[in-house]
Amino acid sequence: MRELFPAKQVTGFVASLALTVIALLVYFLDMSFTVGMVVLLLTAFTQAGLQLVVFMHAGESPDSDSIYLNTYYGIFIALAIVFGSLLAMVWGY
Amino acid sequence: MEFFKQFAVPNPTPTIYLSMVAIGLTLIAVLAGITYFKKWGYLWSEWLTTVDHKRIGIMYLISALLMLFRGGVDALMMRAQTSMPGNELLSAAEYNEIFTTHGVVMIFFMAMAFITALMNFVVPLQIGARDVAFPRLNALSFWLYFMGAMLFNLSFVIGGSPSSGWTSYFPLAGNELSPHIGTNYYMIALQIAGLGTLITGINFIVTIFKMRAPGMKLMKMPLFTWSALITNLLITFAFPVLTVALAMGTMDRLFGTHFFTMDNGGMAMLWANFFWVWGHPEVYILVLPAFGIYSEVISTFSKRNLYGYTSMVVAIVVISTLAFLVWVHHFFTMGQGALVNSIFSITTMAIAIPTGIKIFNWLFTMWKGKIQFTVPMLYSLGFIPIFTIGGVTGVMLGIASADYQYHNTMFLVAHFHIVIIPGVVFAMLAGMTYWWPKMFGFMLNEKIGKWAFWNIAIGTCLAFFPMFISGLDGQARRMYTYSEVAGFGIWNLLSFFGALGLAMGFILIVFNVYYSARYATRDIGDDPWDARTLEWATRTPVPEYNFAVTPQVDSREPFWDSKYEGKTLFKEEIKDIHMPNNSGQPFIMAAFFFVAGFGLVFSLWPVVYVAAAGIAVLLFIRSFEQDDGRHIHEQEIRDTENDKRGETR
């Protein structure tokens, strides 16, 4: 039975539900803007990573290496653009 | 009548009216010609609906050459206007429009189309594939680009061209300072063409990752394919930034948002920031395929394998990362602090290192090689010194403190032309001449080609080296005239002669195409240059299925090894080949995009709604369409292959 039970998918599904509930709490509970943003950012990125790995099968095809490499490259560029823009337009101005 | 006033050109001159008449007549002549020779069916079934990467490549090539002509005429008009102090050939407003359209046409519609043309034609052949991964999307890419380019060129005769520079900086490009619709054309035409480019990017990444011939590991790919891979990676990660910036700019201009305005919390400089976040990777999107072409050409005509293959690959990968870390150097003087400028100054200079590696690798490839001075090789040889001078002046501009002196002068204009012309135009002409026999089944005349090369090489130097001097003397860019006492006259006059030399070179290229098409022999075999990579293992002209049998690769130069080391390239038997069907949907959808774009430019909302609905309907149809492609029968392939073998024509 153990081989037939999709433990990974079920755990992933429960985890993504939990992450959604946590994100929703920001609306229903009374917390400061900073705390709320931190919670939202953390849950959003964890959620995205979870979907990518568990439900979009990023690691399961023979070319998972290039998929991960592309993802890391994309993350690097997104961070460079966001923080570089902040540096040039706000912090270092 | 009131309705039609919005379509009038704001600064009409006799030249524009003449052009309108000429464009109208040409259009009528073309349509009448097609009808007279009964070519509508041929045009539709063989070209407008094709999904064949080779034909799409050829259509890109033709569009790129047309746009090169358009942008070149703009350049000649600019150089003619500034050739004498106080010249009154063009007014200030016209000059603004011309330098804007020159930049946009040359970068977006000439250079981008040219690299896409060569990538389309060559990459699937080089990796031993039958087509790109998504052939129909590839057709959509081309038609979106084409419609975007046509929409932009329409601005010349309907409504007026944009005039705030190819960078279109806000607040100048905003509604207050550019109340005219010209900048709408810029925003929307680039959006449409950019969509096409983004689709190309994704398409080619998948093609190169998934469709290589058996045995072709990543580190066995030809260098042009490597550079195409990295280029498309850059496209995929850089163009979304432009898309977003253009969307925000469009909303500012059409819907009254305040992203880039001076008031209500807008931030005009953010446009410049986004523009160059895309714009600097764009420089590498243009130059990396060029590097790939030079690697192929230099290796072929030195009769040696490429020196330092691994370091070449590492260099382009490093460039692809650094390309995203330098964009602030385009606006060092906008007021950010010394720390920010220092950081981006250092990353900028770091790019010189991988580029230097590549230059030395090319030199070492030629070292002790048997060099043949063919036309593609001449362009490659001319590229190295001229590009290096351009690169060194780039490092000068990259020194932030010194940039306060150079910025916004003709020195900058000289720098980027001296980089882009050898870095992109030379490469495209080299690549075009090199792959021409594969594309069209005959070779371009070498003698005329060499004349064209010398005109272009000397013309480039004569046109742009004087600008270094006048720029250091203080001549600002984008000024339509200057006084005699400034002393810029002589430099600008020299520059005008250089521009004439370039024009002469391009006329010679056009003449060469005509001359060779008429007189060149068709009996050139499949491999006229004695080349090294897989695209030359196909028949000439290339059958629609490319390779009758998928090649087996076990080295970096499989075709060379099959010729001189006795290895077998094609081991399998001929079998039925599965090919995609042609489709008219990409063309029709892009036409809807054109109409929607036109409606957006003039805020004609009913037009936009109808065209947008058309796009949605086509997407819907495509989603539920069953298209399993078709098979080319084994016997048919055998006949084609035998026919080609005995072919002399």
CATH homologous superfamily placement of chain B: Cytochrome c oxidase-like, subunit I domain
Estimated structural class of chain A:
mainly alpha
What would the average pLDDT of chain A be, to the nearest integer? 87
Number of helices of chain A: 3
Low-confidence stretches of chain A: none
Please tell me how large the radius of gyration of chain B is: 25 Å
**Straight-line distance between termini of chain A:** 62 Å
Order of helices and strands of chain B: HHHHHHHHHHHHHHHHHHEHHEH
Family (chain B): Belongs to the heme-copper respiratory oxidase family.
Function (chain B): Catalyzes quinol oxidation with the concomitant reduction of oxygen to water.
Subcellular location (chain B): Cell membrane
Cofactor (chain B): Cu cation; ferriheme a
Notes on the structure:
The complex is a heterodimer of chains A (93) and B (649). By secondary structure, chain A is mainly alpha-helical. Chain A folds into 2 domains: 1-56; 60-93. Helix content of chain A is 78%, strand content 0%. Chain A contains 3 helices and no strands. The mean pLDDT of chain A is 87. Chain B has one domain (39-583, 627-645): Cytochrome c oxidase-like, subunit I domain (Cytochrome C Oxidase, Chain A, Up-down Bundle), CATH 1.20.210. Chain B has helices at residues 2-5, 14-36, 40-48, 53-82, 92-126, 135-154, 182-210, 223-255, 268-302, 309-322, 338-350, 352-366, 375-398, 400-406, 410-440, 446-472, 489-519, 558-564, 585-601, 605-623, 634-645; strands at residues 577-579, 630-632. Chain B has a two-stranded antiparallel ribbon. In chain B, helix 5 (92-126) packs parallel to helix 15 (410-440). Chain B is globular, with a radius of gyration of 25 Å. Chain B starts with a helix and ends with a helix. The mean pLDDT of chain B is 92. Chains A and B meet through helix 3 of A and helix 7, helix 8, helix 9 and helix 11 of B.
